Structure formats: C-alpha cells, structure tokens
Amino acid sequence: MSGQILLAWRSLWQHKRRTWLTLGAMIFCNSLLVFMITLQAGTYPMMIENTLRIFSSQLQINQQGYLDEPELRKRILDSSHLIARIEQEFPELDVIPRSSGFLLAASAQRSVGMLVNGVAPDKERLASIIPQQIIYGHYLEAGDNNQVVLGERLAKNLQVTVGDELTVMGSTMEGGFAAGVLSVVGIFSTGINELDRTVSQISMATFQRLFEMPNQVSLVSINAPSMSQVSFYQRQLQALMQTEPKLTVHDWQQLNPGIKQGIEADLSSAVIMYAVLVLLVILGVMNTQLMAVLERTKEFGIMLAIGSKPSRLFTQVLIETLMMGIIGMLLGALLGGVVAGYFSLVGIALPGMGDIGAQFGIGDRIYPLLSPLSVLIGPVVVCIGSVLVSIYPAFKTLGLEPISAMQSK
Amino acid sequence: MSNIVCKGLVKTFQQGDQTIYGLNHVSLTIKQGEMTVLSGPSGSGKTTLLNAIGGLDEPDSGTVYVGDVEITGLTKSQRADVRLQRIGFVFQAYNLIPVLTVRENIEFVMQLQGVAATERQKRCQEILAEVGLTGLESRRPAQLSGGQQQRVAVARAIVSKPVLILADEPTANLDSKTSAQLLELFTQLNRQHGITFLIATHDAQVFDYCRRHIYMVDGKIVTDTRS
Fold first, then answer.
1. Residue of A nearest to B80 (CA)
2. What is the mean pLDDT of residues B80-100?
3. What is the value of ipTM here, to two decimals?
4. Angstrom distance (rounded) from CA A122 to CA A140
5. Three state DSSP letters for B90-154
6. What fold characterizes domain B32-55+73-226?
7. How far is A301 from chain B (nearest CA, A)?
8. Which cellular compartments is it found in (chain A) (predicted)?
9. How many cross-chain Cβ pairs, A to B, lie less than 8 Å apart?
C-alpha cells in the first residue's frame, strides 16, 4: 500500500500545472462552501434568538388551545403561584409572565385598534429586545401606573408622542367594559413593520386591572440558559405541570413554526446552489482524472505487464483522487476557515438591509459561526464526491490490455 | 522442471479483408535454463509468440504452459499473477515507470509480490550491484542512458526471481558495446540463477550468446537449431 501511495503521489505531481489548476478549483469551492455554510450557521441562531426575543421565548406555558386561538379567557389562574413554583424548582430559568388583549386607543386626533401586551417590565428588560428599542422617552416602570409604550408607526397613526395621553376601550374577559387613560412614556422601533404598527405594552398590573384579570396571565414565557437545553427543560416543566392538566409547555418551534419553515426553505435553496457548485468542481476533477488515465495508458500497460492486477490500477486512480481531495479539503477548509474566522470577529455589514433583515430577526451585521461541522461538511462532500466521480476514469483502467496499452502514445 | 510448452498456437489479425497469421500453429518446448534466440523478419510472429507465452496477449487457439501452469484460459487477473511470480520482461523501449526512481522501479515488483520492506531493500541492493547500477538508485529513468535504463529493466525483471525472462529486442536501442554488456549480463544470470531466456531479436550479436536459435517466418517456426 505504501508503494501505491508513493506512486500515486508522484503521479499526481507529474503534471504540476494541471494538478494545481484542479486543486485551485477545489480549494476555491471548498473555501466558498466553508464561508457560506458558516455564514448560514451564524445567521440562523441569530435569526432564532432575535425572533424569540421579539415575539415569544424559548418555551411558553399556556392553556390548551391558546396557541390556536388566543383569547383572554384561556388564561393561567393563580399565575404568581405557578411562577413561584417554577422559579423555586429551576432558579436558572428566566420566567416572564405576559398577557395579550385588544383595545381601541383614541388620541385627541385619531382612534386606532391596537394589540396591548401586559408585561413585567423588570423581567421584560432581560428577555425582550423591545426595551432596548425605545427611540423616544423611556421603557415602562413596574406597578399599576397607567403607562404605555407604543410602536413607532402606531404612535404616528395615533398622532401621539411621549407625554400624550390615550383613552383606551375594550372588553374584559367576562364581556364587561375595559376602559382607562394611558400615558405614553415611550416609543419603540423594532424595524418590524407589523410590530411597530400594532403593538403596545403596559405593565402587568395595569393590564390585570383594565381587563379584570387579578393574578391571571395569558401565558408564562421561559428562557433556558442555552438553546441546547430547551428540550430538557420542556420535559422537566411538562412533568411539573402534571398537577395543572389544562396547561401545556410549548417550545420555540411550536410557537414559531414560521422560523423553522423559513430556515428549511433557505436551506433548501442553499443546498441546490451548493450542489451545483460541488457538481461543477467534481466534474472538473473527473475530467482531470480521465485525462490522466488516457495520458498514462502506456504506464498502466507497463504495470499490467510486470504483474499489476487491473484492480490495483483502479485503486491507484482512486487513491490519486483521494489525495487531491484531501489536499483540497484541508487547504479549502483552512482558507475558508480563516476568512470566516475573521468575519466571525468583525461581522459582515449588510448596508441597506436593515429593514429587510429586521423582518427576519437579523441585525445589520451578521457573524459566521465556526464549528467543526460547518467548516468541514462542504470540503468533505467535495472530497467524497470527487472520489466517487473518479470511479469512471478508474473503471477505464479495468478494460486495458497490456500490449495495446503499452503501444499507446 | 519449469519447462515452457506451447502447443498449436494460432493468432490471427484482420487487415482489411485479409486474415494475417501472427502465429500459425506454433508448437514449441523450451527447457528450463535454456537461452534461446527467436529471430526472423519483421512480422514473422516473434513478438506475438513472446506475448502469448508471457500471457500479455491471448492466442485464438492453442495452449501455453509455464511450468505446470497453463497460462492460456486464465483470467486477466490470474495471468497478471503468473507474470508477477514466474515471468520477467525486458522490452525494447525499457518501459520503466517514469515517476519512480531506479530503486523504486526495482522494488515495485517486490511490493506487488508482498515482499517485506527490509528484504526488498536487501535484494534491491544485491541486484543493483549485480547489474552494475550501484550509486544510481536515486535517479529517475529520464536521468539515465539507454544502456542504464535497460539494466534497470533487467534488474526489475530478475528481482522477482522468475523462471523465465522474455526479452523483446532488448538491444535494439543500444550501441554494440552496451549490447554486449547486456548480453553478458543475461548469460551470467542464466548460468548463476538458471533462468530461462527467450530473446526475440534481429540483432545477430545476440545469436552468439544463445545455444538455441529459432527462426520464424509468417507466423511459423521454420528452423529450430541448437549449437
């Protein structure tokens, strides 16, 4: 085997320029794959995290059926007790109570329907990005203080600004009249049109008073220390909820099926693009090896004449391709890894992508994420693909006859 | 005894509508240790006979025995194995592997045979001394003269300890002095190791080194004389 490896290595460099040209294509393709895959690997977690920090959380406890049809009456009773139990059992978790309802808001100029979220401001500061997106005024303070923060477009539609008052009206859970006057203390802008046009936030105490829901919340959001622990805590919380048969624990994928679908759709199109790239390169490798086999027909004839079995020539061609594949894989992974590593530190600016990116939970800079999988998967596929396609030129050697092969020019 | 026995060998080639006999019912026995020269005009069937005996080409009919092994009728892979274990080849064009050094070319056959690395090195060193190539082991074929390349080819042919060496016009590309040196080497190997030699050639110089002379015309053995 060592003799075959030596012969393969020497043969590979018999035509240095051709080998380097093929290797160059492999290295370019591999480094491009590494860069693009690490970029995707970095984009998805950011997309998920940002989306979860805006819309939901990693886990959510709510009443059965709430996800399909969110209604005030599908509420969690005695929420403080439930939250205390979870916090006592799992102090490492962030437990965030939230409620949602609809109100008609009227300013001096206009009336607009709005989604109103009841939140615990202190906890919301840790779990949501909205407190950090305040562009005018300040975020909510705890307590029943009739304060409201509005999305930027909602504030524009209502023609209010910080310091103005809104009269709000709606229905309580029991069908009663929910009404009050809220003072605008802050305006936020997330860059997500729908959110900025429809959403407002008030303190949980104010929400519970307005909607006559004492110690009741629509849902409890929960964040684990890391995304990898979400499944574990979902099982743990589900076990804890056994005494509360009407409550269920959902993970982020159930809460935001759109994220998973979006990622899958993006991955599908990316895989097609990668497949085309890989195909072009491995066809180049096949062409190189086919030329090498044709050029070395005489050499193969000599080897057959002095006692090589045809199968040895077959493996010889595959070993040469494997060598080329390994060099291309290592250099491509190294080059792509260095470039991706640099951008994982400084980020890649997306000029003009701010608003569009925000719709998908992506900021104005994206950061490639390097891991053994994201760096190696592309180059390994190219290497394996190259060896597989070189079966064809290798197969050609099986048909060689010593005499006619030795007579070839 | 590892005699070479050919019985009723026929090999034809198509040339337009004509059927040309490369071998026309050739029967022949070469005893172990014989040094035989095969001569005749171009197209007489010398190389065709050599290729048939060496299992490089399949005759249309007839049988070839190398020792107790019938080489005709074997698969490509089995024929390769017989060549590896029993037959050495020396070609007119040397036919060395260009990317390997002298030592690697000689060791290549032993690697195919599965000889251990230390044994390979030892035998290689001995053979290099025997064919007068000591000191040139790290050179590539392109860095050697024609005579030196042919010596490497001979070294490669004998290193596998064959019972038979088939040489096709081994002196055709060599000057007379180098040819004589090569033929001396053949004679020496024949005497020392008892290797059977069958040499196809036009070169009259070769006749002096061989006790048996087979003359072929149109694919037939015309004369077969021993001196």
1. A307
2. 90
3. 0.89
4. 9
5. ECCCCCCCCCCCHHHHHHHHHHHHCCCHHHHHHHHHHHHHHCCCCCCCCCCHHHCCHHHHHHHHH
6. Rossmann fold (3.40.50)
7. 9
8. Cell membrane
9. 68
